[in-house]
Amino acid sequence: MSMRYSKRGPGEGLNYDWENDHTFVKVSTRDTDGAYTLMEDNLKASFALGLHRHETHAESFYFLEGEVDFYVDGDWHRCGPGSTMHVPPGVPHACRVAGNAPAKMLMIFQPAGFDGFLAELAKMTEADFADEAKMAELNARYDIVPMGSVPPHPDDEV
Predict the structure, then answer these.
(1) pTM (2 decimals)?
(2) Is CATH 1.25.40.10 the right assignment for the domain spanning 14-113?
């Protein structure tokens, strides 16, 4: 009999160890028939994600450890353990770790598919990343609309 469920323990699931974060796919697109993807993201102290939006995807974040400064629709929020941030489709957002310390969060992407984006990124070369047309096509295929770098944070002003 085939399994009608999935289980992944600590450190299990497809994982992508990038320069600035280490992501584990806990519930994949395949597991949910495309309904959503659940990932554990271990953000390294240098993590920052530029301003972007998704036209059709919603994202929810549940913060487990550390703190993350989250920019959503023009407002900054510091999110720590037990906090939740939900970003509906069309809403610009960016984030960075706070205090140059690692953080950990769960991310839900609905509908699913972001795990496919990560799988494709993992196969790319430096030349692929430098190819603007290739990156634009990949972003478009996975509903990622880049809008620039992380906006200035009030704590950065002197």
Answers:
(1) 0.91
(2) no
